[in-house]
Amino acid sequence: MKPAPTLSMAFLHPAGQLLPEPLAALRKQRGTALVDMPLPTRKTENWKYSSRHLKLTDDMAISLPAEGKTGSSLAVPGYKVAFLNGVMMPEASEYPDLSGIRIQSFGDLDDDEASELAQRLDDTLGGSDEKGAVQMARLNSARFEDGLLIRLKPGAALDQPLFIIHETSADASGSAYPRIFVDAGANSQITLVEEYISSGSEPAMVNTVTEVMAGEGANVTSIRLNMEGDNIQHIGATGVVQQRSSRFESHSVGFGGPLRRHDLRVRLEGEGAECKLNGVVATRDKQHYDNHTSIEHVVPHCNSEETYRNIAADQSHAIFSGRIHIHQDAQKSNADMNNKNLLLSNGAEIDTKPVLEIYADDVKCAHGATIGQLDEISLFYLVSRGIGRREANVLLTMAFINELVEQIPVEAVRETVQGRLSHFFEQTFLEA
Prior knowledge:
Elements: H1 21-33, E1 79-84, E2 87-88, E3 101-105, H2 111-120, H3 137-143, E4 148-152, E5 162-169, E6 174-176, E7 179-184, E8 189-199, E9 204-214, E10 219-226, E11 232-242, E12 247-255, E13 259-268, E14 274-283, E15 288-297, E16 303-312, E17 317-326, E18 334-343, E19 349-358, E20 364-372, H4 376-384, H5 389-405, H6 411-430
Parallel strand pairs: 1-5, 4-7, 5-8, 6-9, 7-9, 8-10, 9-11, 10-12, 11-13, 12-14, 13-15, 14-16, 15-17, 16-18, 17-19, 18-20
Antiparallel strand pairs: 1-2, 3-4
InterPro entries: Fe-S_cluster_assembly_SufBD, SUF_FeS_clus_asmbl_SufBD_core, SUF_FeS_clus_asmbl_SufBD_sf, SUF_FeS_clus_asmbl_SufD
Protein name: Fe-S cluster assembly protein SufD
Domain SUF system FeS cluster assembly SufBD core: 172-400
């Protein structure tokens, strides 16, 4: 019997980026725990559609150097923090100077601050995973070279969005491990925009983790844009823990690649907490995108709303796996999950798996999933009114997702996303 593949030892040797001792010790501890870590296979339930796309060669274990300039596809109308290959670039960043808000590199923390942070890292990424699940966020914890700590004191509010630009410079094969930790105090407010972009053409991997601790009454909005090139494997995780009356809102937009994977985990731990998760994915050629979400209602009187839409063309593959877990004590929970999917060709594939696990008896929960193609009657109507067939295809495809794109609360981001999606579909139907 062929032995199960394990993570190469080459991935367990972080580069020499200096970190405060408590964080360096944590990184070493996490690395030791990954020795002989099994890699996902088709028999790994949460990776069964994506395991064959995961390519972790030894040359990819090398940390990409943080050298060069950073850019963005966005016209940044707010504050900015720039990462290059997982390391913060202060000279390319513009920090807010507001009372009650601290933004720091992990490397700039003193030992006491680093010790406190080390005790909290990874706390949002636990939970009741299915048996045998593989979480690649563990690799980030063993390899991060730097990170961003965002701390909002009670009542603090960021007056403009904070843009976090993650650029991967793949002039050589290697990997990068960006890390973000957001500590939003009681009744604080922040909007984060994470944009993932790349330059260079060599095969590379980005393994990223963002954690959010939302205190009582905190309001956190997260916008996540995956716009990297076709040479980049992207494996991301976002973990959120919410306290009483807090609100977390997520808007995720992703374009396919050789492997795109995002795990979003939200845990509602305080009564009255609410979360709203929106996601849009577009794939073509032989691209791949895999979204996994998990919402845990732990206590009573919490609300969650989740809407994801996938569009796949050519021979591409999109996956949505959504799970809502209503714990036994989470009475009076309201939860709704909806996943709609659009196939643009006979060779494309979309797999959807919405799951409700309900252990309380006084709840309102619903979930649904559909997969279909463009409506020929609507297409015929537009063409009969003098609209070209290609333009009609683009209009109908954009209409399928525009309801979610319009909900992105930052105008500059919304306009960029609409333009990028429109161009993506124009190219898709041009080549059809």
